Structures are given as C-alpha cells and as structure tokens.
Amino acid sequence: MSRVSNFGHDIADRETYSPPGTGGVAAHQEKAAKPPFKAQTGWSFATDHPVRAYQRMPSAISFDGTATPPVPRGEYAIQTLQTQTLQADRLNFMRLAIFAVLFFVSAAFAQNQNLDNVQIHTLHVQGNVYMLVGGGGNVTVQVGDEGVLLVDTSFAQLSDRILAEIRKLSDKPIRYIINTHLHADHTGGNQAMLQAGASLQGGGNFIGRGARIIAHSNTFERMSGLLGSDKPVPTAATPTDPFATESKDLFFDGEAVQVFHVPAAHTDGDSIVFFRRSDVVSTGDVFVTTSYPIVDLQRGGSINGVIAALNRILEITVPAEKQEGGTMVIPGHGRLCDEHDVFEYRNMVTIIRDRIQDMVQKDMTLEQVKAARPTLDYDPRYGSTTGFWTTEMFVEAVYRSLKQGAKQ
Ligand SMILES: [Zn+2]
C-alpha cells in the first residue's frame, strides 16, 4: 500500500488522468465520447437489453451448489471446435472461436482447482468488518449485536470451513448475504450460508428460508435462468431480495450498509458494498489485485464499465494520513487494499483501454492489436500466459468490448 505519488483526488482528474508518455491518447476524449454503456436500472424480466445476443452462448458454469465437475480447462471448447468446424464456414469458425474463449472464462469461473487442502484465513480489516481469504473469491464478514452479514460466499465446497471461521467471530445467526455478482466462486456457498442463517423478518414468503440474499436483479435473473443461458442454481441459493435500482441500503449492526450497482462492468449485475461506519468497501470482481480486470462479455461486462466502477470506488474511498489507509478496500480476489491501490489499478486499466481504443479507431485488427502488445509495460505485474485469464484474453476482451461499444 505504498504511495509513491499522489496525483490529487479531483474526480475530473480521475476520469481523464493519463500520465505523460504512456499512450493515453483517448483519455481527454472520454467526456466527449458517447456513453460507453447504457444505464441499466429499472429493467423488468421481460425487457430486452443490449447484451442479449451474447447470452445465447453456451455456458459451462455449474451453479448447482454442489461440487463443481472437474472440467478440463477448455477441453469441451476444443472438441467443439474440432467437430463443428469441419463443415463450418469461416464466419462460423470465428463465432466458435469466440465461444471457445468465453468457455475458457466460464470454466475458469467454475474453477477447476482442487479445493481439498485450501485453508481459510481471517483478517480483521477494521471496525465490524473481517475478510476471509482462501480458495475462491474473498468473503467479507460484518459482525455485531444483530448478527452476521456476508458479502459473497465463495465456493460451495468451502462452506464448512468458511462457517467455522465465521463462528470464531460470532455465534449470532447469519442475517444477510449480499452477492456482488453471479459467478460460482462468489455465490457457490449461498445455500449453505442461507440455511445456516435466520432472517430478521419472520413470515412472508421466505419463512424458514434462513438468511436473506441481496443482489442486483440481473444477477438474480441470471442465477434463476431468467436471463442468459447459465444453468439455474437451486431456488434455495438464489437471491431473495433482488434490487433493480441504482442502490439499496440497510442499517445493520450499528452502521449503514450501502449496496451500489455498477452497470456493465465485470458482469451486468455487479454490486459494491460500503460499510459506512467501519469505513470498508467490498468490491467483488470489478477490482482484483491478482490479474488484469476480468471482463465477462458474455454476461454483460464491458471495459468501460470496469473503469467506471473503479472510479466509483475512488469516489467512496478517502485516504487518511499521508494518503495511506483510511477507507479500506476488499477486492474480489487478492490482498487487502486502500484507495491508492485502486487508484494505481484504475490508471493502469485506463491507460491500456486508451491504447486499444486508439488502435480500434485506426481500424487495426485484433491480431494487429495483439501484436502491438498494448499491455507490455504492465505484464510483469498483471500479465499471464497461462491460467484462466491470460493477457491475450484480456486484450481481446477489451478490443471486443470497445468494438461493441462503438456499434451502440
Ligand atoms: Zn467473478
């Protein structure tokens, strides 16, 4: 969390900042450009929306709340390519290639890592808030007199270990679960956590259902099979309290808890959660410290939405003395951060976006963009040639996202 530089905290600077000599050509055009994504509040189940075409694609995510099948990474996708491209024309081949790329991402979200030996570690962040780390996505735990509130629930296979850690922090029931988005490494434990909990609001439709699960309506619809083509999760693992507004709030354990929807970012159903008195933000996967941003185009993500989400986090966070600490930030994956970490990450993503945007405007093909290595100087820190989210996949996602945005 070292702070080697401070470029000020003016919001306008945040949106347009690009250090000299780093290729941020389009940064100053940010405001002039047409909105890169549409406001997505207020959709009803029946409403169509801009990414529906992408949701027709096959998906490999298993949200059944049980052990994730050990799908060899991308094997299905390769087989599909091998069998179907025999009679496919070039266009179909390209479509399948996109499917294959998306499949890699999907398989990775389902995570084929062996979780048997994963240990869950607990870190006190500050105030009422703790962070559980190990295996899947980070789990945020808020404890207090009224009970336990969780942000995300990691993989189903880790539920016993996660519950054991929660019990070390509080013997009170789990009252609320907030899902930042639908991926199984963040929601797989929903059912176990819900059943281990108890709602404060007795009666109603959810009597006996345990804790309540809050999530953006797009996340609810995708997990329920109402939107997209993901396999629906069991009813007991779906959100009980979806919201279609820009935000939702509750007062719990002596503090305001604000849930903000950030549109079309990692997915189209992302939320970030702000614990106002504890002064902690839990971001889900719009912010990770372990890789370049993961843009799930198939589920409504976009690179400009990721940058907007990072800027939203920067609006909330306030650093303390010498720009260190203050509001603490729990990323979807990776280590505990403060504002400056988000600031550096936002700058990196913006610079790379601007470089690729410039190449798109010059009508460069995807192959030409890849060959130009627009991420080169950041690759030692965030790049990868193996694993589920390689540098190439990131560059391709940014390219496609910007192309897609340009068509709207
Ligand atoms: Zn995710």
Structure description:
With 408 residues, this protein is of the alpha/beta class. It has helices spanning 11-16, 75-84, 90-110, 159-169, 184-187, 190-196, 217-223, 303-316, 339-361, 366-371, 379-382, 391-407, and strands at 121-126, 129-133, 139-144, 147-151, 174-178, 212-216, 241-243, 247-252, 255-261, 271-275, 280-282, 328-330, 337-338. A 7-stranded mixed sheet has the order 1-2-3-4-5-6-7. Helix 7 (217-223) links the parallel strand 6 and strand 7 (241-243). Helix 2 runs antiparallel to helix 3 and helix 8 (303-316) packs antiparallel against helix 9 (339-361). The radius of gyration is 21 Å and the shape is globular. 49% of the residues are buried. The protein binds zinc ion (ZN). Zinc ion binds next to loops.
Termini Cα gap:
39 Å
**Total helix count?**
12
| Residue windows where pLDDT falls under 50 for at least 5 positions | 1-94, 101-107, 203-207
Structural class: alpha/beta
Strand count, sense and closure of the main sheet?
7 strands, mixed
Bound molecules: zinc ion
Shape: globular
Radius of gyration: 21 Å
Order of strands across the main sheet: 1-2-3-4-5-6-7
Task: Classify the beta-strand content into a percent band.
Answer: 5-15%
Average predicted confidence as pLDDT: 78
Number of strands: 13
How do the helices and strands follow one another from N- to C-terminus?
Answer: HHHEEEEHEHHEHEEEEEHEEHHHH
Range of helix content = 25-40%
